[in-house]
Design a protein that fits this description.
Shape: elongated
Structural class: alpha+beta
CATH architecture of the largest domain: Roll
Number of strands: 7
Order of helices and strands: HHEEEEEHEEH
Largest sheet: 4 strands, antiparallel
CATH topology of the largest domain: PH-domain like
Helix content: 25-40%
Number of domains: 2
CATH superfamily of the largest domain: Pleckstrin-homology domain (PH domain)/Phosphotyrosine-binding domain (PTB)
Distance between the termini: 41 Å
Length: 183
């Protein structure tokens, strides 16, 4: 469910609650009342995002519980972001992999090892350029996900450069050489 759909559900529930409780709001003009409902929806988005961030941090591996850390000690988080105007998705770039974390209460995590990344592409239409957001397509040799799109990323050109540089550094660290595949 995207942000607009959630906003529609909140708006419908708000007006339904007013009707069920026989509350009549006549002193506030309709456009201002809708602005109030939109502010309420934005508060819900902020609360859910805070819960999501808290849940992800709580899920960090703990050696005190006898669980081995999932990330090697030398893996460094380089960037973390979420799609513009959305909840439930987080993008994370480390020095070794790109993660896409989906979910609010439960998580589905997709990963692409940076050594498998072949190329990246950025797509922005005019409206996205004005907002400085865009889609980044990561093309990899991973058979399960040969192409992965990061939607509505803020400052996509800078993030693409981060992915490119991290990919080159990881391939160099592992001693992999660049070679062109001829078909």
């Amino acid at each position: 469910m995207d942000r607009n759909q959630v906003r529609q559900v909140i708006t419908a529930q708000f007006y339904q609650s007013l009707a069920e409780n026989r509350v009549q709001v006549q002193s506030i003009p309709q456009d201002e009342l809708q602005g109030l409902v939109n502010a309420l929806a934005d508060g819900v988005f902020a609360a859910v995002a805070a819960l999501e961030d808290e849940a992800i941090e709580e899920e960090a591996p703990s050696t005190a519980r006898g669980v081995a850390p999932a990330e090697p000690a030398n893996e460094v988080k380089l960037w973390r972001g979420r799609p513009f105007l959305s909840i439930g998705v987080i993008y994370e770039l480390t020095s070794q992999r790109l993660r896409i974390i989906r979910g609010i209460f439960g998580n589905v995590i997709e990963e692409i090892e940076l050594v498998r990344v072949k190329d990246t592409r950025v797509k922005q239409h005019a409206g996205e350029r004005m907002l400085d957001v865009g889609d980044i397509t990561v093309i990899s040799t991973d058979p399960s996900t040969p192409e992965k799109v990061l939607h509505n990323v803020s400052d996509p050109l800078a993030v693409r450069e981060l992915i490119r540089n991290a990919t080159m550094e990881e391939k160099q660290r592992r001693g992999l050489l660049y070679r062109e595949e001829l078909n």
